[in-house]
Amino acid sequence: DQATEDLHETMETLEVKNAELDMARKRAQEGSRVKSEFLANMSHEIRTPLNGIIGFTNLLLKSNLNETQREYLTTLQNSAEGLLAMINDILDFSKIEAGKLVLESTPMNLRELVDEVLAIAAPTAHDKSLEIACLIYRDVPLDIIGDPLRLRQVLTNLVNNAIKFTSDGSVVVRVMLDHQEDGHAILKVSVTDTGVGISESQQKHLFQAFSQVDNSRTRKIGGTGLGLVICKNLVEQMQGDIGLESHIGESSTFWFTFKAPFAAEGQLSQLNCRL
Ligand code: ADP
């Protein structure tokens, strides 16, 4: 009868719509994959000539230059390094989107890593007359298993941000033991600055892709807005978490936790021998 016929017709329409939806979903997935691949390839291709520019700029800076030449070349070096940092962020982000960013596990020393990050950041901090300090609490196990490159990346990002957004005062890094379990510790690293701070409404978006806090200072300073998104993904892969506390116009403390399996006795000395 008519009702059954209508029902059949509706069901047919529904099936067609479902098939269309499926097709659209597949096209979107394919589009997203192509986009990630394109981003990854482009970033890779841009990195090669950029490394050439940076390498030769460094070489030139070691030669005999007058003051103006040195000043111009230093500006060129800073711009090229800023661009490389952005390209690296885009490359990492496209890897994350494609599920291809995988962490390593090697024996490493936490103190060496923190010292390295601070040694690199110190000149920029001192140029701005900022104090930069580090406290590693006594109960923190230093010989651990982790991905030194990625841990350094997270800490560097937080320290660089702290320096960028602070015009006077200090930047302090603290490394603490959150708690200890069988064979591993959960460690907490925090970076406290006395900078511009971030309002509560803006804090929510910090860990979402492409969402920089929109103010004139940020626009002037630049960046991709991907740094913290990448940090969040990295610490989550280390079975940790990331967060912040901030008071506008006063200070910000960014912190992250991560799981740190203890390096067995001898693992680090083996590593040192290989080096
Ligand atoms: P980018 O990679 O562009 O530096 P991030 O994801 O690292 O971006 O940071 C996003 C935004 O968060 C920054 O542009 C800035 O507005 C804000 N921010 C990050 N750290 C701080 C800080 N310590 N003090 C004030 N604002 C900060």
Automatic annotation (TrEMBL):
Subcellular location: Cell inner membrane
Domain of life: Bacteria
Positions of the Histidine kinase domain: 41-262
Protein name: histidine kinase
Native organism: Kistimonas scapharcae
Interval of the full protein contained in this chain: 251 to 525 of 934
